[in-house]
Design a protein that fits this description.
alpha/beta, seven-stranded parallel β-sheet, 10 helices, 38% helix, globular
Length: 252
Amino acid sequence: MNSLRREQMLEFIKAKDTVSVKELSQMFSTVSFMTIHRDLEFLEEKGLIERVRGGAKYISPDESEFEPTFNEREIANRELKHAIANKAAGLIHSGSSVYIDAGTTAYALSKTLPNFPLSVVTNSPNIAVSLADRRFVNVMLCGGSLEKKNLSLYGSAAIQMLEKINIDLAFIAASGYSESCGFTCGNDGEAVIKNLVCKKARKVALMLDSSKIDTVLPITFANEDDIDYFICDKPLSDALLQKFKQKGITIL
């Protein structure tokens, strides 16, 4: 409930740009002023808002960036991401080699990963850390340059490592999908990594929450022919469902 309320609060502040604590207390009338202040403190620590006298102001992402911060995306649509993560975890078998992409949906998957013998390759430092307490999970982290918005590693060091790794099943996250542009993201370095993994893996599972369908970002890294599973939180439209099935894609 806390995460849902904070997500709604962030959207309310974003819509109005600046709000007062009084406005928030009227909108969230079932919680105390102290709870509202704690929520604002949480959102400020995540770098999503700025506390101002008597209220809060939304912090807009840098206009030169195509995607919002990791913290902003991690708190947004959290329930959808967990729904996708639970479906994705069901595809993983003991003893296999799995690649987990960077991003908030992939991070949710790392939290639900079964604790049985497994090799996990990732280009996400925070996902590697989240798996550190899994006794039976062997974790391999790519090297490279850190993309701060998505907390991912990319570049020649990451590419060289991934070219030598065998992957049974890759879980790839996209920032957008459209029928005209395919699966897209906002960073060229990340796109290179995603594209390489799609080519290396025996099977590819594309994870995308429904809010990103019909969204287009600058870089296309894959299309329908590159994936084997499409994992979404909601049923697809009849037209899109038929298109994916014609491509031999399993819908979860």
